[in-house]
Design brief:
Strand 3 and strand 4 form a beta hairpin. It is elongated and about 80 Å long. The chain has one domain (27-134). It has helices spanning 2-21, 28-38, 124-134, and strands spanning 45-47, 54-57, 62-68, 71-76, 90-91, 97-99, 104-106, 114-115, 118-122. By secondary structure, the chain is α+β, with helices and mostly antiparallel strands.
């Protein structure tokens, strides 16, 4: 019985990992590629008035922040090792302006803020189109040889 319980605990991560891979959610690499494709040219700063509406880490060197549902910015933050593991982030700003080389992404560790090295606006409409393209269903006709005949009355 003890060995069966140990096997169940060892098998649980593999089962959960298999379920996660079947969820249909795009991988981090796919999300990163979609954001990179939807990003515009680099800018030196952007206006930031309120708290963040949303954010998503895309590795240890890239984060997307949403100031509003339709306004997103792709921020390069090289070496920001806490980014994928933190529950909340913050942004520094000066007079409601977030600037390259000066402002930082805060991950909760006061001793390790992440300096923003590049800012790119994200075309949210283009990003949504890419997401829809990934969700397309491939239809194919059913093989009639495997379909049982209709039941007779």
């Amino acid at each position: 019985m003890k060995h069966l319980r140990m096997f169940a605990w060892l098998a649980l991560p593999m089962v959960l990992g298999a379920c996660a891979s079947l969820s249909g959610r795009p991988s981090e690499q796919q999300r990163r590629a979609d954001y990179e494709a939807a990003a515009g040219p680099a800018q030196t700063s952007f206006r930031f008035y309120n708290s963040l509406w949303s954010w998503e880490p895309l590795g240890t060197d890239l984060v997307v922040v949403y100031a509003r549902p339709n306004q997103a910015w792709l921020l390069d933050v090289p070496g920001c090792i806490d980014l994928p593991f933190t529950n909340a982030i913050g942004l520094t700003s000066n007079l409601h302006q977030v600037s390259v080389g000066f402002d930082k992404v805060l991950t909760g560790r006061r001793d390790f803020p992440c300096t923003i090295t590049r800012i790119r606006p994200v075309d949210v409409a283009k990003l949504k189109q890419a997401e829809v393209a990934h969700r397309t269903v491939q239809e194919k006709p059913r093989d009639t040889a495997t379909v049982p005949p209709p039941a007779s009355r």
